[in-house]
Design brief:
Blueprint (H helix, E strand, L loop, with lengths): L3 E8 L3 H11 L4 E6 L3 H10 L16 E3 L2 H10 L3 E8 L6 H10 L7 E4 L5 E2 L5 E2 L1 H8 L5 E5 L4 H5 L4 E6 L3 H11 L4 E6 L2 H23 L4 H21 L10 H12 L4 H10 L4 H8 L4 H15 L5 H10 L5 H9 L7
Parallel strand pairs: 1-2, 1-4, 2-3, 4-5, 5-8, 9-10
Antiparallel strand pairs: 6-7, 8-9
Helix pairs in contact: 4-5, 8-9, 8-10, 8-11, 8-13, 11-12, 13-14, 14-15
């Protein structure tokens, strides 16, 4: 019998990585560590069991260890002997994937270690190609099993121990089920699926639609308009997902409708806040600086649009958000463009 169910290393000391690592480490059958570049964050986690910079007012698990040295963090994982399996969780923004993966390659990561992405963005490679996080991990570390975790999960609520439910996707159905069982508790339900594409498309698109939802609120267009926008945003998500080989049912699940609903209506949504502040006349650069954390939808939108164009998929909301973020259109013109589109069958 093993002492622990799993050993887990979370890469990323932002709000989501910290919150999820803390929740996992509170379970006495999981051995969990976190790696972060910011030494102040690491010190606060280890000495005060808090992350005031990214996750204020949340008391973290006293079982959680943090490292600022990636090699030492990997050593922690490798030296955990009596466990059923080991997982590296990528709780990084999409922009952080290339550098960290290169560093992991140099450390010769064991092929038995499971790689799991929490990222809801698109990764750009050195040659400007665009990948979903799981695709990029597969290219860089091809011998490891891959999973994706996604769903409605504001970090501050996760960090406070509130109940939530998410989806774990892997092309290896048994692996998805094992990870789901490992992470699930009385206050965290993890459902399994093999539709990695559908889960990742949903995670990427909901941030773009959330910016549009924030614009709608900032312009005071009303609940009716916002509901219509979110619904048409879901239609864009489904069209893109199906074109990329996703399963339709995924978009009705936690990673699809669940996450879209939360991010487009919840007051804690960073991407929604970006749209709201733009509608109120704030400068985009200033908005992003004030956020203090990444709003993936801003950098993801143009990549999504290119992806849609490559598959001949119509993404009108995404297109208007891109034009707005790039300064090519005024807000009023973007709204008018959407409202004056030719009618079509639903």
């Amino acid at each position: 019998m093993t002492d622990k169910k799993a050993a887990i290393l979370v890469l990323g000391g932002g709000s989501w990585g910290t919150a999820f690592a803390s929740r996992l480490s509170a379970e006495n059958q999981l051995s969990v560590a976190l790696w972060a570049r910011n030494e102040k964050v690491v010190s606060d986690i280890n000495l005060r069991h808090e992350n005031q910079h990214y996750l204020p007012e949340c008391e973290l698990s006293k079982n959680l260890l943090a490292y600022s040295d990636l090699e030492k963090a990997i050593s922690f994982l490798l030296n955990e002997g009596r466990v059923s399996f080991k997982i590296i969780i990528f709780a990084l923004p999409a922009s952080g994937f290339p550098d960290v993966c290169k560093r992991l390659l140099k450390l010769n990561i064991n092929k038995k270690i499971v790689l799991l992405s929490l990222c809801k963005g698109l990764v750009s490679s050195a040659d400007a190609k665009v990948f979903f996080p799981s695709q990029f991990l597969k290219q860089m570390l091809p011998n490891n099993e891959l999973c994706v975790l996604s769903g409605p999960s504001f970090a501050s609520e996760v960090g406070r121990g509130l109940p939530f439910a998410i989806s774990c996707a892997s092309k290896n159905q048994e692996m998805a089920r094992v990870v789901s069982a490992t992470f699930s508790t009385k206050r965290l339900r993890v459902y399994s699926t093999t539709d990695v594409t559908g889960v990742e498309v949903s995670g990427v698109m909901k941030n773009v639609i959330a910016i549009a939802s924030g614009l709608c609120d900032g312009l005071e267009l009303g609940f009716n308009a916002r509901a219509s926008l979110i619904t048409r945003g879901m239609a864009e998500t489904v069209r893109l997902g199906l074109a990329l080989g996703a399963e339709g049912k995924t978009f009705l699940g936690l990673a699809g409708f669940g996450d879209l609903l939360l991010t487009t209506t919840g007051s804690l949504s960073r991407n929604k806040r970006v749209g709201y502040e733009i509608a109120k006349g704030s400068d985009l650069k200033k908005i992003l600086n004030n956020l203090g954390q990444v709003a993936e939808g801003v950098t993801t939108a143009p990549k999504v649009l290119c992806l849609g164009n490559s598959k001949n998929v119509s993404l009108p909301i995404t297109a208007e958000i891109c034009a707005l973020l790039e300064g090519k259109k005024l807000i009023s013109d973007a709204v008018n463009s959407l409202l004056s589109r030719n009618l079509s069958d639903e």
